[in-house]
């Protein structure tokens, strides 16, 4: 289109230009720039562990220009290290890097929040009103924390003596409360909902016990773990070891106790007895560590992608959505029936890559996820029990020795090796879990 403008007629020039630009854009929308900006072959929702690692894997598979990741946060956190931040063994600063620095180069970062997913039209709307369309969608939105479901929170965190390793805003408060401990109850909670890293609520108890022993205050402390669960840990082999530890170290475990209120000004925590409805107990604390209730992403819950409970409804073998074959899921947001951990996300990322490569070739996905997940149960500043298991709750251990034993080597792996592996291997889509090493260590027998 050739536009001729008269230099002295500015008003007309503007009109003429807008008229033609309008025409042009409507002509161009069908096949060129305007729509290209909004449409992606592979759209990833969430730039956490699963989202960034899949972004990197998809970049290698189909080219960076075809991939976009929607993530509102400026910062990306390696959440597993927060357990050690809460115990003063690592700094909060070491847990985060800018999202810009972990985004695979060339992949489009859509810096907004997903508000609505519409899989029937293959579109997503963000909070600034932008509509993105996709050919394939990977959902990696994590899970939602609900401190507000406990009466008195989150405002209670403005008081001292209370912390929570589950959020960057409150993790350093745990360490402060531990350092300032004088005398009384140290209380650790586990909520009445699914959680991510189900070991983390008790790991901080073992570390606090170790810290109080180291600083000569242990005799003045009564340490208790109040959990909504009927067990100390879901997998018997590791639960047995943990029961030995709590007995040996005089840690009191109260099962089926659910935190419902915090009166932070009075340092009181209120628990309901889940086995006796209506029965509550008030415990005065000198230190309180809160693991908040958690639930599915509200964006997924409000979409046709959700199962009845609100989780992303995926095939447990292939990670493909059960009803929308161009949609896939990874990580904490899914209804995969395994423990929600970063280690599980790593294993899933390798499976999902394989599933998507098959789907792109119009072939049937052929790899099956075995539910591999792992939880390094930190039991002191130098020991870890490394729980690893599958969908059936059967131990699936990498090393050729009994991992239910507390080991120093496993602590170094957790504290020193894993963060490196996360930032330099996993986020780059180069770490799909320890499966190949397990085979090697067990001479191909596992
Ligand atoms: C204290 C603690 C200790 C842990 N310890 C361990 C451990 O020892 N070992 C282990 O393997 N795992 C551990 N984990 C669990 C691990 O961190 C998670 O399982 C893992 O991060 C899950 O990855 P994900 O991608 O599913 O979710 P996340 O990494 O949480 O990412 C979700 C992303 O989605 C983004 N998002 C949310 N809503 C929207 C929206 N509407 N629009 C766009 N983006 C959105 C979020 O900003 C976030 O970046 C621990 C977690 C915590 C908190």
UniProtKB/TrEMBL annotation:
<keyword id="KW-0274">FAD</keyword>
<feature type="domain" description="FAD/NAD(P)-binding">
    <location>
        <begin position="40"/>
        <end position="165"/>
    </location>
</feature>
<keyword id="KW-0809">Transit peptide</keyword>
<keyword id="KW-0560">Oxidoreductase</keyword>
<dbReference type="GO" id="GO:0070221">
    <property type="term" value="P:sulfide oxidation, using sulfide:quinone oxidoreductase"/>
</dbReference>
<dbReference type="GO" id="GO:0005739">
    <property type="term" value="C:mitochondrion"/>
</dbReference>
<protein>
    <recommendedName>
        <fullName>Sulfide:quinone oxidoreductase, mitochondrial</fullName>
        <ecNumber>1.8.5.8</ecNumber>
    </recommendedName>
</protein>
<dbReference type="InterPro" id="IPR015904">
    <property type="entry name" value="Sulphide_quinone_reductase"/>
</dbReference>
<dbReference type="GO" id="GO:0071949">
    <property type="term" value="F:FAD binding"/>
</dbReference>
<keyword id="KW-0874">Quinone</keyword>
<dbReference type="GO" id="GO:0106436">
    <property type="term" value="F:glutathione-dependent sulfide quinone oxidoreductase activity"/>
</dbReference>
<dbReference type="InterPro" id="IPR036188">
    <property type="entry name" value="FAD/NAD-bd_sf"/>
</dbReference>
<comment type="similarity">
    <text>Belongs to the SQRD family.</text>
</comment>
<dbReference type="GO" id="GO:0070224">
    <property type="term" value="F:sulfide:quinone oxidoreductase activity"/>
</dbReference>
<dbReference type="InterPro" id="IPR023753">
    <property type="entry name" value="FAD/NAD-binding_dom"/>
</dbReference>
<dbReference type="Pfam" id="PF07992">
    <property type="entry name" value="Pyr_redox_2"/>
</dbReference>
<keyword id="KW-0496">Mitochondrion</keyword>
<dbReference type="GO" id="GO:0048038">
    <property type="term" value="F:quinone binding"/>
</dbReference>
<keyword id="KW-0285">Flavoprotein</keyword>
<comment type="function">
    <text>Catalyzes the oxidation of hydrogen sulfide with the help of a quinone, such as ubiquinone-10, giving rise to thiosulfate and ultimately to sulfane (molecular sulfur) atoms. Requires an additional electron acceptor; can use sulfite, sulfide or cyanide (in vitro). It is believed the in vivo electron acceptor is glutathione.</text>
</comment>
């Amino acid at each position: 289109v050739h536009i001729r403008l008269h230099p002295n007629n500015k008003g007309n020039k503007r009109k003429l230009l807008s008229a033609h630009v309008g025409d042009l854009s409507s002509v161009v929308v069908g096949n060129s720039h305007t729509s290209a900006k909004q449409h992606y072959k592979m759209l990833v929702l969430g730039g956490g562990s699963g989202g960034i690692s899949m972004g990197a894997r998809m970049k290698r598979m189909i080219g960076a220009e075809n991939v976009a990741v929607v993530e509102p946060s400026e910062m990306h956190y390696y959440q597993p290290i927060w357990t050690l931040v809460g115990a003063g063994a690592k700094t909060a600063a070491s847990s985060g890097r800018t999202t810009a620095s972990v985004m695979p180069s060339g992949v489009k970062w859509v810096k907004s929040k997903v508000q609505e997913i519409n899989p029937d039209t293959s579109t997503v709307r963000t909070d600034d009103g932008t509509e993105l369309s996709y050919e394939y969608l990977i959902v990696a939105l994590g899970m939602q924390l609900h401190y507000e479901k406990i009466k008195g929170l989150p405002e209670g965190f403005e008081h001292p003596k209370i912390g929570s390793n589950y959020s960057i805003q409150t993790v350093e408060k745990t360490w402060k409360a531990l350092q300032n401990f004088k005398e009384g109850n140290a209380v650790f909670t586990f909520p009445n909902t699914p959680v991510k890293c189900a070991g983390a609520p008790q790991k901080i108890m073992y570390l606090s016990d170790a810290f109080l022993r180291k600083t000569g205050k242990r005799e003045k402390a009564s340490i208790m773990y109040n959990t909504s669960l009927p067990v100390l840990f879901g997998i018997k082999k590791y639960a047995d070891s943990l029961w030995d530890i709590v007995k040996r170290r005089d840690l009191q475990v109260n099962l089926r106790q659910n935190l419902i209120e915090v009166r932070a000004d009075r340092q009181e925590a209120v628990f309901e007895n889940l086995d006796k409805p209506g029965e509550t107990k008030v415990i005065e604390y000198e230190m309180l560590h809160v693991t908040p209730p958690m639930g599915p992403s509200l964006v997924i819950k409000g979409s046709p992608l959700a199962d009845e409970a609100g989780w992303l409804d995926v095939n447990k073998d292939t990670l493909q959505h059960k009803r929308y074959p161009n949609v896939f899921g990874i990580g904490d947001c899914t209804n995969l029936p395994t423990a929600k951990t970063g280690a599980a996300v790593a294993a899933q990322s390798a499976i999902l890559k394989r599933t998507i490569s098959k789907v792109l070739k119009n072939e049937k996905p052929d790899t099956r996820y075995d539910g591999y997940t792992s939880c390094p149960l930190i039991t002191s500043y130098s020991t870890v029990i490394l729980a690893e298991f599958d969908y059936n709750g059967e131990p699936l251990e990498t090393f050729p020795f009994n991992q239910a034993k507390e080991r120093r080597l496993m602590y170094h792996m957790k504290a020193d090796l894993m963060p490196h592996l996360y930032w330099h291997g996993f986020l780059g889509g180069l770490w799909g879990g320890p499966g190949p090493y397990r085979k090697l260590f067990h001479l191909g027998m596992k």
